[in-house]
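Box 3.1 — From sequence to structure: RE37218p2
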Amino acid sequence: MFCRISGNKSRGKVIAKTVHSDMLWRCEYLILGMLLLAELTQLGEAVTANQQRRNRRLRSDNGTKRLTGTKNQTGIRSNRRQGTARKLSAKRVNQNKKAATSSKIQSRIVGGTSTTISTTPYIVQLRRGSNLCSGSLITEQWVLTAAHCVKGYSASDFTVRGGTTTLDGSDGVTRSVSSIHVAPKFTSKKMNMDAALLKLNQSLTGTNIGTISMGNYRPKAGSRVRIAGWGVTKEGSTTASKTLQTAQIRVVRQQKCRKDYRGQATITKYMLCARAAGKDSCSGDSGGPVTRNNTLLGIVSFGYGCARAGYPGVYTAVVAIRQWATNIMANN
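Predicted structure (token representation):
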């Protein structure tokens, strides 16, 4: 672009001013280009951040993500366990349909093998309609499970089934729940102290039904622990396992787990982490047992997806909630 100059100016001066004006316009274009590039860069970063949030999952979906019987993250591990602009996935499963979830988590046994209830007679199914979690029978009338499976619901919403290997539980024994006791520090946002006790309406006994004692120690890093459940066998699946699954995983150092989950979740003293290549709990496994030498050491809680490299499963440390649980059972 050229600017017009009036008056008795020499041709040389006109040319000089015209060139100078042209340079100014070029500078303005350059500045505008740089501003546009900055805007595009910020937009790209925002899109990337949103995509990262979509990929986060907890192992349960606070009851919103479902599995069909024949998912939530993606269940509890539930998703934990499960879908929104994505968080961690908690590990709870609903066996009807998939639903987007506002919470976090995902959980079923990924990379496991089929087993029978006789090897884990203390594991029970926790049902709320078509929603599935697990629990551990610690006395004949008390079940220890994950708080995210039950918080916000009434005792009458749940049934507990023990003594069965299969998902349909046709050979099991069913009990109703008379009261629910959620750990005092639990919040769905942070998943801290993710534990709850269910008192059954009557003792749960029968073939292949037994209790397990709560551990009074935290397993060392590198030690093997066992997980079990009926959850989905891979992240994103909508089908729960028809038979009980189990897998061996190894405990991860607390410091390493905090580093792995930095920016995703806060790993507290109430949690322990464990992993194995290609093995993990996933949607539908929430509330289930983590054991070693027939002692209950953990409760399936949440994780970032299922069996993802760099993200171990996160479990409630039973030793950290043991005193609370003992007091609840003694006073109720």
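Summary of the box: The mean pLDDT is 79.
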